[in-house]
Write a structure and sequence with these properties.
The protein contains 13 helices and 17 strands. It is of the alpha/beta class. β10 and β11 form a beta hairpin. α3 runs parallel beside α4. 46% of the residues are buried. The structure holds alpha-D-galactopyranose (GLA). The site of alpha-D-galactopyranose has 9 residues, from loops. It comes from Platysternon megacephalum. This is Alpha-galactosidase.
């Protein structure tokens, strides 16, 4: 009881502080940089028949295996931390005290034991619930049980909640539900990342109030579910660019726009398209939640997902989301401001016919003319790591990009110092090697 009262007081104090300083991000101290981890949905969906699909059904075994691999195969070392369960983990009924319970055949040890296992590996456990009467796959929803479910998750040692928005009733119930679950999680006193889909379910009827959403959620889905297909990645990027005026500025430490899972390492994307997803998810300061099979992943996909330079851009402490600067013919130029006055720049070739094409642009396009003023060093990060040397504000870059591929650069501004006269690399023609 003492602990519960203590944490309740702590939570109340936190909310008083939030009210005093005004509505910022959800100040639970979490997600200061975009969340990194693994989430089962896109790759494993709602496979519940373990007799038929023992290796891919949604069971404690699957999550334990992924946790093992996250440690043994270097994923944890580069920052992937949360092992997340999506829909279809539950039993179809609550227990005799109305608590959610896992399917007894697929999770015989229970979620508490699974969380202990994941924690013993130095990782964190994510779970899934729904604001409405039922989850999207028809399992029990949290409507009417927000406090009980939040407490159950906290008692189990859960570290992240993905809260879906199927079967929610009215728009008011949707909003109240997302708010109440945030408050309920806070009241437990446990640190639980709160991943929402609130704006996605709101959008068809109402314009989301992102200031409010950020006040309650650590990240939020805006757009349709991602699929293992170029069309899906392309549409997600286009939606984001078209709505950037209303969503980019709201992102920052504690609260992020979530364009959904990384599908790299699966079946549907070409190598260039996988480069595009990784590069643009870094530009968008997106949560990096992979949905793939870590037991069967190519060395190439692993190299890309574990690329420290791309991850450093995604996790940049300034926490500013990037945006599309221009769309010309079939090219798109995106940039993201980074700490120390640096910029990440992505050149995406949207043309789906023909071969590699060259996009030419002046460095004065980047960072409102400031990124290379008076000079800058440019490093190509993807498709391969290459040093492009020094440039200045009149440099012109000719960049060759494969169809549906992306070249990702990091541009670091160099101030003028008396003893350092930069040697410029003007009009460099570049042909990135493909792995
Ligand atoms: C919705 C969500 C998906 C996934 C499924 C599970 O479609 O947007 O990410 O969680 O539900 O049923």
């Amino acid at each position: 009881m003492g602990t519960a009262v203590g944490s309740w007081r702590g939570a109340t104090l936190a909310w008083v502080l939030v009210l005093l300083v005004g509505a910022g991000a959800l100040e639970n101290g979490l997600a200061r940089t975009p969340t990194m981890g693994w989430l089962h949905w896109e790759r494993f969906l709602c496979s519940t028949d373990c007799a038929r699909e023992p290796l891919s059904c949604i069971s404690e075994h699957l999550f334990m295996q992924m946790a093992d691999l996250m440690v043994s195969d270097g994923w944890k070392d580069v920052g992937y931390e949360y092992v997340c369960i999506d829909d279809c983990w539950m039993s179809l009924t609550r227990d005799d005290q109305d608590r959610l319970q896992p399917d007894p055949e697929r999770f015989p040890s229970g979620i508490r034991k699974l969380a202990d296992y994941v924690h013993s590996k130095g990782l964190k456990l994510g779970i899934y619930g729904d604001v409405g009467n039922k989850t999207c796959a028809g399992f029990p929803g949290s409507y009417g049980y927000y406090d009980l479910d939040a407490q159950t998750f906290a008692d189990w040692g859960v570290d992240l909640l993905k809260f879906d928005g199927c079967n929610y009733g009215t728009q008011d119930q949707l909003a109240e539900g997302y708010r109440n679950m945030s408050l309920a999680l806070n009241k437990t006193g446990r640190s639980i990342v709160y991943s929402c889909e609130w704006p996605l379910y709101m959008r068809p009827m109402q314009k989301p109030n992102y200031t409010e959403i950020k006040h309650y959620c650590n990240h939020w889905r805006n757009f349709a579910d991602i699929y293992d297909a170029w069309n899906s990645v392309k549409n997600t990027l286009e939606w984001t660019a078209l709505h950037q005026d209303s969503i980019v500025d709201v992102a920052g430490p504690g609260g992020w726009n979530d364009p959904d899972m990384l599908v790299i390492g699966n079946f549907g994307l070409s190598w260039d398209q996988q480069l595009t997803q990784m590069a643009l998810w870094a530009i968008m300061a997106a949560p990096l939640l992979m949905s793939n099979d870590l037991r069967h992943i190519s060395p190439q996909a692993k190299w890309l997902l574990q690329n420290k330079d791309v991850i450093a851009i995604n996790q940049d402490p300034l926490g500013k989301q990037g945006y599309r600067i221009t769309k010309e013919n079939n090219f798109e130029l995106w940039e993201r401001p980074l700490s120390g006055g640096a910029y990440a720049v992505a050149v995406l070739n949207r043309q789906e016919i023909g071969g590699p094409q060259i996009f030419s642009f002046s460095t004065s396009f980047i960072g409102n003319g400031l990124a290379c003023n008076p000079a800058c060093s440019i490093q190509q990060i993807l498709p391969t790591s290459e040093d492009w040397g020094l440039h200045n504000w009149v440099s012109f870059l000719n960049i060759e990009v494969n169809p549906t591929g992306t070249v990702l650069l990091k541009v670091v501004v160099i101030g003028e110092t008396p003893d350092e006269k930069p040697v410029m690399n003007i009009n460099k023609k570049l042909s990135p090697d493909i792995l």
